[in-house]
Amino acid sequence: MSENSETTKRAYHSTEHRQTATIEAVVELCAEQDPATLTTARIANKVGLSQGALFKHFPNKSRLWESVAGWVSAQLTQQVFSAADRHQLADQALEAMFLAHVGFIARHPGIPRLMLGELQKPGNGPAKAIIRQTLARYRKKVTGLLEFGIQQGRIAPGIDTEAASVLYLGAIQGLVVQAMVSGDMHTLEQAAPRIFKLYSASFQEKPDDPAK
């Protein structure tokens, strides 16, 4: 490999590292303050860069937020979906997915604020579009598992799978809101198994009544 190629490779890895570090810094800072008030100056200071250096990696704040949304989408779906895919039984996959999602939020408490902040913005910017697409893909995954569970006989037939998928996400969102109200995000993972147990009770197959 030539010296120029090696230099180019090092520069690429350095740029990639700083971009990732900046994205992770934004996620961390969103746990401390309203994302709408987060300035590029504070982000740059968190990463140890000047604002000029920051804008070499992200030409504007919109592009940075788009990259953050992309990172959140990739990390969330990869970690949550892979947890589900390790199980052959749909009800167990749904539980694993639920707990993995809650665990992801507990490790990155700034993400709910970031996602909600983008969804509340007017228009349909790139970051908002990514978040919407991620949530739609997530609901589709949950609905598919519910339908598969019906086929397996693990979930009661006749349930409204679309409504059940909305309730699934709503249970996670409710947990997050309660943790934010209490100011203790660590309670998320403690409460998650109990909440999922209540949720799953609504779709479990009921055994036949022996008296009939």
UniProtKB/TrEMBL annotation:
Source organism superkingdom: Bacteria
Single annotated GO MF: transcription cis-regulatory region binding
Feature: DNA-binding region: 39-58
Record's keyword terms, sorted: DNA-binding, Transcription, Transcription regulation
Domain HTH tetR-type positions: 16-76
PANTHER family per record: HTH-TYPE TRANSCRIPTIONAL REGULATOR ACRR (PTHR30055:SF240), HTH-TYPE TRANSCRIPTIONAL REGULATOR RUTR (PTHR30055)
Name assigned to this protein: Transcriptional regulator, TetR family
Organism the protein comes from: Marinobacter subterrani
